[in-house]
Amino acid sequence: MPPEASLTAPEAEREDGLASRVAPSAASGEKTYRVRALWRTLQGEGFWAGRPAVFVRLVACNMWSGYEADRARDAERNGADCPLWCDTAFTKEGSVRLTASDLADAVVATGDGVTFCVLTGGEPLLQADAALIRALHARGVTVAVETNGTLSLAGAFGDEADWPDWIVCSPKLAAARLEIETCDELKLVVPDYRPEAYRPLAQRVRERSLAGPLLWLQPEDGPRFEAAARLAVDLALADPRWRVSVQGHKALGVD
Fold this sequence. Notes:
Layout: H1 9-15, H2 18-21, E1 32-42, E2 52-58, H3 71-78, E3 96-99, H4 100-111, E4 116-120, H5 130-138, E5 142-147, H6 153-157, E6 166-169, E7 185-190, H7 199-202, E8 214-219, H8 225-238, E9 242-244, H9 248-252
Parallel strand pairs: 2-4, 4-5, 5-6, 6-7, 7-8, 8-9
Antiparallel strand pairs: 1-2, 1-3
Helix pairs in contact: 4-5
């Protein structure tokens, strides 16, 4: 892996062995998905926090290249703050190309009884499509996706019947630049992203019975965490429609 790629030690241990655990799909002319990581864990955030899940990290993002040298350039080019602090590794090094069928089989094998799958990135809608959702559904897997909202669900998946079962949007651009039609959870990473800037998007979040619309304020991890956590609490108390998202997987010491 190039030295400028951003990757923490736990991520390196988990992801460097992907190719030894999952063989790439044989050449067949079918579309393949470039997968950076595939692991069994707990969902750590939001409505499904604590639920066993298989995470699929797809390569690529439309906000940042994933390399340290490009952080400032990509932040300026996209008008997004996330390249300056994102700590997720979604570059192509160590990735494996899999067809929809092979990826769905790998999710089932990795899950070993866990049937909740989270497609994440980077930006998963750059790769995920209806064929992948159908393949996972055919194996009894419930599919969630974590997206930045810059791409439309219809554009990625087509008919609504082929959309993921659960959609989490964590926007990284101004609301006017988002294409996502709706979502089940809206998560803003504070301090850079705040409720007043996303009122129109908040109105498109689907309500879930007594829970109402799931609107989350996620304190940015890292050196600004203490101030970000205090701000998240203050914002939620000022507008109780919003809730503070706690990263339970970090508290529990799981990836």
